[in-house]
Amino acid sequence: MPVPTSSTAQAPLPAFWLRDNCPCEQCRDPRNGQKLFQITDLPEDLALAASTEQDGHLEVLWSDGHRSRYPLAWLSAGHRGDARTEQDKRHWQGADFAAGIPEARWADYLADPAERAAVLRAVQRLGFAVLREVPAVERQVLAVAGTFGYVRETNYGELFDVRVEPDPNNLAFTSVAIAPHTDNPYRDPVPTLQLLHCLENAAVGGDSGLVDGFRAAELLRSEAPGDFAVLTRTLVPFVFRDRVTELRADRPLIETDPLGRIREVRFNNRSIGTLRLPAAELEAFYAAYRRFAAITLRPELQLEFRLDRGDCLIFDNVRLLHARTAFEQDGSRHLQGCYADLDSLASTLAVLDRQNAVLDGLQELFEGAGAEEYLGEAVTQAGHMLQAAVLAQRSGAPDHLVAAALLHDVGHFFDADSHRAVTGKELMAGHDNRHSHTGADWLARWFGPQVTEPVRLHVAAKRYLCAVEPQYRAGLSAASEFTLGVQGGPMTPAQAAEFAALPGAEDAVAVRRWDDRAKETDAATPPFEHFRPLLAALLAPLAVNGQPGKAS
Amino acid sequence: MPVPTSSTAQAPLPAFWLRDNCPCEQCRDPRNGQKLFQITDLPEDLALAASTEQDGHLEVLWSDGHRSRYPLAWLSAGHRGDARTEQDKRHWQGADFAAGIPEARWADYLADPAERAAVLRAVQRLGFAVLREVPAVERQVLAVAGTFGYVRETNYGELFDVRVEPDPNNLAFTSVAIAPHTDNPYRDPVPTLQLLHCLENAAVGGDSGLVDGFRAAELLRSEAPGDFAVLTRTLVPFVFRDRVTELRADRPLIETDPLGRIREVRFNNRSIGTLRLPAAELEAFYAAYRRFAAITLRPELQLEFRLDRGDCLIFDNVRLLHARTAFEQDGSRHLQGCYADLDSLASTLAVLDRQNAVLDGLQELFEGAGAEEYLGEAVTQAGHMLQAAVLAQRSGAPDHLVAAALLHDVGHFFDADSHRAVTGKELMAGHDNRHSHTGADWLARWFGPQVTEPVRLHVAAKRYLCAVEPQYRAGLSAASEFTLGVQGGPMTPAQAAEFAALPGAEDAVAVRRWDDRAKETDAATPPFEHFRPLLAALLAPLAVNGQPGKAS
Q: Which of A151, A253, A271, A552 has the most B C-beta neighbours within 10 Å, making it the best mutation to test the interface with B?
């Protein structure tokens, strides 16, 4: 037997690591990847009894009798991290955005998952993005946060107002600049995201400024490593205290992870309380702090832009420092802001990336394998499904049924086990009489039951219609009549009654009828791309809805 | 000139530290303690030009001309921290609660600020507390969280249900135990508090278990320091992934602060993803992890108790591991849970402590200085104020006016500058004609304007009434007639009109009339304690209301 080794170091794979990662359904919930056992459930003397490589898998028999099967590709896969440290960020200075800052129109952000992913990726990688043409109405900022995460309520409420009112007695009134800072360092956990939505900006001046705090920290590390070390080690007492609040957090200005990578920056002189340290440490801290503060003010690090009515800035509050330039001339300025967190944004982005990959994959299927012949019918597979979708759309069907019609035969493309394409010949030979289930199961990884269940039942619907409508069977194509046998023949009256009682039965029958009619030789159909926005809208965008239950 | 030194180390006080802590109103917002300057605003060559000690203060003239004045007591004060690391916790094992767990009745928790502080302090110091007799209605858990903080919404929603339904087909149905774990380690920031509210528990078994994760980590450190170090250094990829979510956080199982103190524990085998490390590091991690896991299961560390209908458990989710014992017999069990954060809980506790200290201080005043004679009247100061409060209460006045009546002369106890008690003789000598303002300003540190403004205006109300009601002046006591002159005499008609237009004028007049009547020689009054719950309820309990505005 081959001695399994880890791909990175040619040492034997540690038994507990390997077993802890067993992907079988006994060990891991297939719905959410959560393990179903505790590490202490494994025997102390756990060992590999036997292992073999076969079919691209490492198969292991364990000393306790359990069997595991690992894809070799998994063994050598890399780590996908949480993208929270400096190594996963693109550090920047002001001039890097000479050609423009990351931005998108609100309408495009809502309609196009690729645009939405681009905006969220900018926040993750660059630390910020601006949405333009967001409706300039009160509380809209909460809706923006809701597109990727959850509002973090604080003692300032769900949202806060940043307002400068003109002073009618003093037209030359100049509101002071606000130096670059992060918000709420006295909170722990500190809000990791901030949103600022401009409802009005009639002021001259009062522009928004951003500084990449990771870049500033990196500069400090390279220019004065000792000062960098002091700021990562010194616990700074951040405090906010008023009549009804007393928030305290003792955290370093620059937080590094156990590998020494910059992870969070807190910078806000206003809320630094009194450090109580020996004098020499105070001297060292204030020297390092002043040096770091001076770096954050370097002109080349500043990015300035104007937020106008309808603009919404989203930024990383544990990385970027934000600022406001002085008002040169009077005028109302009103922003509404709220806090949210990076973890949900990253989750939304990851799901959007998966969903965009699914749409890309479906498009490839329609343009590749789907362009092949369809069971001896006079249309291609893709042509057939596109026709079905067009028929659904023309009949005024809701979007989820158009999607079900479009995707009803997608199971034909996959073998249930290997996910390899199934040829029409194999189906004709009776190999796949469960393509409706294969397709529905595959689709259920991204779509809800409104889409998947009509797909799952569309073959049963044929057997049902053959049982309850004699004229329906007479109208079947020759190929469809042939596969009816493979599929189980017409339902018995008892089966038909049971089917009709299923929640999705009516939708499945509708899909079935479009399916049957979608075999015109020369029907003009739009390309798959036409349906892409409709499919995109049906992909669940955030986790609150459709969550089957809490996993702790 | 004396060379100022820090009290801990007899070295000269660092100039930037001292200046950064200047308490003057130019440097620091008196409402919230936030600094009004940036560290970079200070000159590079900042130095002390001169300093003297006088009147218990260090007075400093700076090289840039600024003057600062520091109480000597402040110079030698200790650090008040954020109470988040092991040093601020009472570590425990199960037997420590043989006499009972920290708990309170919901009604007492709501009514009594001291009880409320005790519960929150238990969560902060021990990691948990149980509220009993909480109304067993859906969504009530959100109201519990709202008494000390803000609900952290996640992909599970605002709240989540933990339900085990009886299986009518299998009465012997046994639901499995859930091993001790922390929740949501794949989230970052992880929710630092969890609440579990029992709506129903008809099951036999299914008890709740808690383990002090800091204690477990401490044991690991003392028994196997190398393993402890491995767990603080190794970034564990926590993952939760389903159709609509993909949360990832790379964090150590045991997080220490820059001083090496245990700060957070994450422990959840279910959501540990695949570590990608050299084989030797994987071996070391799994050995340390298994040792730590075994410690968390030691019988002496387990605390088990039952949550019954109406019980709400609040616990620290970055310290305590929670568990559920197996069900021995079937029965419905339904909990509702939500997440919140420790920082707001600590803030609420700090404010409650301040408020309880204020009530204690007022009680001392009423029982001490207040028991002295009142300006030659036939009652004591305390007797006078208690009578006024009783009159207000008998007239059906709202609580805030009863409080204003009770506290209307509290300014007599303080000299505006020194806060030392002012004697009746001094007042008679015309020393304090502003006691209403002194009192209102002092009260405004804890009470809202509904209480403070009638106090502020009650002397003006006398001058107003003398102006608009001739018979009112005729009824004044001799002492009151005397002080009328000190206070400015009756208002002019213009002054009276201006006064009547003030928002609090009517309330102030009401307080004034009780004030005037509250001079009975032998009126029976309840002690100060009688009014304490009423005052407690008027002290702002949380930060959302009454916040003047956001400070970043």
A: A552
On whether residue A3 sits in a domain, the answer given is no
DSSP conformation class of B329? E
* Residue B111 shares a structural domain with residue B20: no
pLDDT mean over B425-448: 69
List CB contacts of A422: < 8 A, sequence separation 6 or more.
Answer: A412, A413, A414, A415, A431, A432, A435
Amino acid identity for residue B322 in this structure? H
Give the chain B residue whose CA is nearest to the CA of A160: B550
CB within 8 Å: A152 and B157:
no
Q: Looking at beta carbons, which residues of chain A come within 8 Å of B181?
A: 552
CA distance B316 to chain A (A): 13
At residue B540, the pLDDT reads: 62
Inter-chain CB proximity A347 and B232 less than 8 Å: no
Asked if B405 and B529 sit in the same domain, the reply is yes
Taking a C-beta distance cutoff of 8 angstroms, is the pair A336, A224 a contact?
Answer: no
| Rounded Cα distance, A277 and A255, in Å | 19
Cα four-point dihedral sign B272, B277, B279, B284: negative
Residue with the larger pLDDT of the pair A208 and B168: A208
- Counting every residue written for chain A, the total comes to 552
Kindly report the backbone phi and psi dihedral angles of residue B160, in degrees, each rounded to the nearest multiple of 5, phi listed first.
-135, 155
Residues B515, B393 share a domain: yes
pLDDT digit string, tens, across residues B395-417: 999 999 999 999 998 888 765 44
CB contact under 8 A, B258 and A235: yes
Q: What is the CATH number of the domain that holds A223?
A: 3.60.130.10
Domain of A67: which CATH number?
3.30.2020.30
DSSP strand E in B168-276: where? 178-181, 193-201, 204-205, 208-212, 236-242, 245-251, 254-256, 262-265
Do A532 and A445 fall within a single domain?
Answer: yes
Give the confidence band of A107 by pLDDT, cuts at 50, 70, 90: very high
Single residue among A75, A104, A120 that ends a domain in this structure: A75
Cβ-nearest to B8 among A32, A79, A278? A278
Q: How far apart are CA B454 and CA B512, in angstroms?
A: 9
Tell if the CB–CB gap between A154 and B154 is shorter than 8 Å: no
The residue whose two tokens read 């004697």 is B423
Residue B337 included in any domain: no
A385 within 8 A of A518, measured Cβ to Cβ: yes
- The model carries a pTM of 0.87
Instruction: Domain of residue B268: give its range.
Output: 86-138+163-196+205-332
My answer on whether B405 and B293 are in the same domain is: no
Beta-carbon contacts of residue B451 (< 8 Å; ≥ 6 apart)? B400, B403, B404, B407, B443, B538
Option in B5, B79, B157 nearest A276 (CB): B79
Give the chain A residue whose CA is nearest to the CA of B297.
A40
Residues A23-38: tens digit of each pLDDT: 999 999 877 788 989 9
> Would residue B356 count as lying in a domain?
no
Of A11, A242, A289, the CB nearest to B32: A242
Cross-chain Cβ contact A346/B157 below 8 Å: no
Among A75, A98, A124, the domain-final residue is: A75
The answer to whether the Cβ–Cβ distance between B152 and A152 falls below 8 Å is yes
Tally of domains in chain A = 3
We report the CATH number of the domain holding residue A396 as 1.10.3210.10
- On whether both B439 and B531 belong to a single domain, the answer is yes
**Greater confidence, B66 or B110?**
B66
Using the structure block, give the residue that is written with the tokens 């158009």: A402
Cα distance between residue B511 and residue B265, in whole Å: 55
CB contact under 8 A, A247 and B546: no
Pairing relation of β-strands B57-62 and B327-329?
Answer: unpaired
Helix (H) or strand (E) holding A212: strand A208-212
Match 């419905």 to its residue by tokens.
B332
